[in-house]
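Hi U.,

Before I forget, here's the chain from the pilot set. I'm dumping it here mostly so it's searchable later in email.
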Amino acid sequence: MAKKEVIIPPDVLESREKWGYSQAIKAGDTIYLAGMVAWDEDGNIVGKGDFRAQAAQCYENIKRTLAAAGARIEDIVWMTFLNKDVRLWPQQYPIWKKYFGRHYPAGTCVEVPALYQPDLLLEVQAIAYLGKKEVVIPPDVLETRKKWGYSQAMKAGNTIYLAGMVAWDEQGNIVGAGDFPAQARQCYENIERTLAAAGARMEDIVWMTYFNRDIRLWPQQYPVRKEYFGRHYPTATCVQAANLYQPELLLEVQAIAVTYKNGTFWATQYHPEYNLHEMARLIVAREKKLIKAGFFRSHEDMMNLVERMETLAREPDRKDLRWQLAIDDDVLSDEIRQCEFVNWLNKLVLPTAGR
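Structure:
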């Protein structure tokens, strides 16, 4: 069980006694930050009426809190921005760049009707991770990092933090303007593709939040949801947002997934004599041992990988499968894959065979 620790940062408002919450909790390598607003250490609002100044104070409070937990801004993997007026959001880009540079955590930006005090314009939630992190860049999903400063997902250990997904196609066009089920479908499609790029599936999702422009439309997406989730029921929260980043967007969906596998079963780098199809068959032959060892949760989980491997073996130009499986020509090309093995035979084995 992960050890938990309350983080009490210096020069940040002490919130426990007055409001009953901590600024951050550290659980193992994960740090969960409270929503940060533009308060100085005495609880005074910095930058009334000035969105940029408030954003800077939020980021400064985040930075100080992380430092108290032994972390940095670069360790943030997931953020949610709650705005009083989402139209002001672009004003903070220069401030964001100052604090985050080329670090792009997964992010969600929505408008809310009000914050705790009328003069607060922004509240920022964040989760940071001290271990190995990986930016997930899914194919066929809009590349957001350079344009908006966030990643579609970040993988931290076996947890995948997804940005808020909206009904954008890969060019950033809205799919299904005015059509709630169509926008829900595009959101789920983007989630599925992003998870696949991280080696996960919809069944790995454990937590979701739905931000709706009109919560009365929510039941319209039930049939679409069933197509993507079946009988998998992650925890979920459904709320109405005052606005989303674009007026035509009707829904934004956050998700967190946890992968089951204790490791990744892969062996072509150790056994280059086997091609991709043969490796898939070896996985099937060792099904019971691999499931018992925790590499797969079930026969169906194993076959999901095997079928993708065999499809890629037949269709080596499939970029989507190459991306999902992290496989390139060093595995798919017999000449490249076997090069090291052949060199070993020719230079070390055969010259000494007659001794």
